[in-house]
Amino acid sequence: MKTAINIKTNKEVKIAAQKISEELGLSLSAVINAYLKHFIREKEIQFSIAPQMTPELEEVLKEVESDIKKKKNISPAFSSAKEINKHLNSL
User: Fold this and answer.
1) N or C, which end of the chain has less CB nearby within 10 Å?
2) Whose CA is closest to 21, among 32, 5, 9, 12?
């Protein structure tokens, strides 16, 4: 069963949110419902301007950092395309 929620917000906030949701191919209602479901599931509210990394990206970065520490999967620095080609041909 569907129900309505009436909220008051700044007109500019509503317009900006509608514009972004439309750009993403979503209705503002769908965005708000997604936020509410997240709130229920995670029992948390996030306020951030900075984008957050996904757990998958965090995992990849951990592997990269591990490789760097082990000096594994690291190519040397090159100063010319000729050096790059020479290195690639040697692999």
Assistant:
1) N
2) 32
Going by the DSSP 8-state scheme, the letter that residue 50 receives in this structure is S
Q: Where are the domains of the chain?
A: 1-50, 53-91
Amino acid identity at 28: L
DSSP state of 51: P
**Is the separation of the CB atoms in 73 and 67 below 8 Å?**
yes
| Contact assessment for residue 84 and residue 78, using Cβ atoms and an 8 Å cutoff | yes
The percent of residues in the chain predicted with pLDDT above 70, rounded, is: 100
Written as six digits, the tokens of 58 are 């965090």
Tell if the pTM clears 0.85, that is, is over it. no
